[in-house]
Amino acid sequence: MSSASPNFLGTAASEHSPKFALDKDFVASYRSVAPPFGFNGLGEIVYRRTYSRLKADSTREKWFETIERVVNGTFHLQQKWLAQNNLPFDAAKAQRQAQTMYDKIFYMKFLPPGRGLWAMGSPLTEERQLYAALNNCAFVSTGRMWEGEHTAARPFAFLMDAAMLGVGVGFDTKGSVAAREQNILVGAPSTRPQSTFVIPDSREGWVESVGLLIDSYLDPKSTDQFDFDYSQIRPAGLPIKGFGGVTSGPEPLHELHDAIRQTLGRNSGNPLSVSSIVDLMNLIGKCVVSGNVRRTAEIAFGDPADAEYIDLKNYEVNPHRAAYGWTSNNSVFATMGMDYSDICKRVQLNGEPGFQWMENARRYARMGEETDRDSRIEGANPCNEQCLESYELCCLVETFPDNHATLAEYLDTLESAFLYAKTVTLAPTHWRETNRVMLRNRRVGTSISGVAQFVTRRGIDQLRVWLDAAYQRIQQIDTQVSELFCVPTSVKTTSVKPSGTVSLLAGATPGMHYPESRFCIRRVRISKLSDLLPALEAAGYYMEDDVVDQSSMVVEIPIDHGEGIRGLEAVSMWEQLALAAFLQKHWSDNQVSSTITFDPEREGPILKYALDYYQYQLKGISFLPRLDYGAFPQMPYEAIDEEKYREMIKRIKNVGLHMVEDTDQNEPEAERYCSNDSCTL
Question: Could you tell me which residue ranges the Ribonucleotide reductase alpha-helical domain spans (predicted)?
Fold first, then answer.
């Protein structure tokens, strides 16, 4: 066929087509534009420390370059999906969509999750194809540990593997019920022949060693006891390429192996206990943190009538758990109409457990809108904004309604935001069970932040109007995008995440939460080697030596959350619950992540009554007593009055931080999960 002949077979995307890239002149037009980072420089500092990756020339990305990497990675992922399925790729249309997405991110109308800003388009996904790292969180059930193609250790190995990739994981304790019902007893491998496993110096090697050890106790067919050779693991203090941070050496893994032996040794000869399941998951989380994956996130779900489970964080009853029990939030699978009296006495002390109503999560999309599409969910992610099936991951994307002048502008932003998140669902993971669920569900969590600012400026009724219109628009976008990629529409599409560093970039309050006060000081730790320090000093920011880490400086940044906004002390427990229910009805078909702050003396005794009413309006909720822990040096957050704020802001001048080159050769450490605003910066 000559080059002039028509193509009767159509034009499909080709894996050999030029790799998608934004127009260079378009990207260059943003080079000298000052990004609208929020909160008087805090957003820019957080960006530079957390998401600005090293480039091939060993210099660090600037904001306009980070967005280029992320958008190019997003559309290259689409291009690969279409090529693999012999579907057409419209390069001109993709370029237009990509430029729109770029502009929306640059001006922070929406932002990919921290996971996406850090990993999308990087060698982690482009070369190593570790697409799981683009997802925020996951859930795994232990209820079928002894069923299917995998061994009993699979849920524990999955949690460890995911946590080492920065994915937060929820889990349940149903494996204990299965062990009792099937009369499966924890073994005693010390009586068996010994095998030595040489641990490879890799994430996979660490995970495999833990799986082998747990299976030697839990797999009825196991014939070995395992000893481990740690000689291949790099010593402590070396840079971790791609992930940031430095190596920990073998010691955290060695300690984990010893702790697993102790935990399961105590359980030997009996069915696997609830305590052992949670202990194993928590000990793995502690190892991941010690292994220089800086943070991890877990949530455990148990039976509200199980005294053993409820007492797991009672360190008077279980003093040994104080060393690792902090690695998970603990919640219960609440049942409609249950008596909340006794369990609320525990909540009054430390805020736990939280509550998850699976009946509501399975029955409803937005509350009041019944659906049968999500009946297989079994739990939720650590921040409790996504109900999930076992081994399912979720991708979140964050939008900022208050950063838009009109509803029409916000509806336009949703096209780019949802397209980003839906694209992530095209990427396969290295877990078969996960792919099986995600190919079917394509679950997305389009989230909103700055809710408190929007309500303060425009009122709750305008929020209702915007959210109802936006939800309907997202369903339309989902239909269009799903047809483009030839995939199912998403089983659910919206959520309210608690947010963390991403909302700081945009100058937004996190999720639905109100700030502690309108004015505050946020303190950020920065390496003394960072080229940002001289620029910050020249700009007039106060800084001092870190009292904990001699290699860092602490920089103080004055924050104003906005005129008229109330501090959290002025927002009652009842108003917070009402706002969560409002968002569950008008926006989130997944869940609303909400931690309700309450006065333990005044509101603590009536928690039971609050749950009696709101169990019919929510899918999940957690509580936090407002306790006075007193002041301590260099607190990450300190409330101040307006006079102090004005005094600090007078000293600060704009020196163009976005143009400062940073020669720090360390990769940024990944944001490890869907964190909330209380995390130390």
Answer: 22-122
pLDDT of 643: 96
Residue 642 in tokens: 């307006």
Instruction: Give CA–CA dist 320/306, Å, rounded.
Output: 20
Q: Region 576-598: what's the mean pLDDT?
A: 98
Active site residue 308: no
Q: What DSSP character marks residue 54?
A: B
Please list the residue range(s) of the chain that carry CATH number 3.90.1390.10.
512-575+593-659
Q: CATH number of 24-133+397-502: 1.20.1250.20, 2.60.40.10, 3.40.50.1010, 3.20.70.20?
A: 3.20.70.20
- Is residue 383 part of the annotated active site? The answer reads yes
Q: Which of 137, 287, 344, 383 is catalytic?
A: 383
Please state the rounded mean pLDDT for residues 542-548.
92
- First-to-last alpha carbon distance for the chain, in angstroms, is 62
**pLDDT at position 527:** 83
Say which residues have a Cβ less than 8 Å from residue 107's Cβ, sequence separation at least 6.
36, 403
- For residue 187, what pLDDT is reported? 94
Q: State pTM to two decimals.
A: 0.92
What pLDDT is stored for residue 10 in this prediction?
Answer: 47
pLDDT above 70: residue 396: yes
What single DSSP character describes residue 239?
B
Partners of 354 in the β-ladder: 331
* Range 18-40 average pLDDT: 96
The domain 142-333 is placed in CATH, from the list 1.10.260.40, 3.30.450.20, 3.30.1620.10, 1.10.340.30, at: 3.30.1620.10
Closest alpha carbon to 676 in 503, 531, 445, 481 = 503
Q: What is the DSSP letter of 491?
A: S
Instruction: Quote the distance between the C-alpha of residue 135 and its chain's center.
Output: 8
Given a cut of 80, whether residue 46 has pLDDT beyond it is yes
**Using 50, 70 and 90 to split pLDDT, how confident is the model at 39?**
very high
Cα–chain-centroid distance for residue 622?
A: 17
CATH of 512-575+593-659, one of 3.90.79.10, 3.90.1390.10, 2.30.30.100, 3.40.1620.10: 3.90.1390.10
Catalytic residue among 61, 298, 352, 385: 385
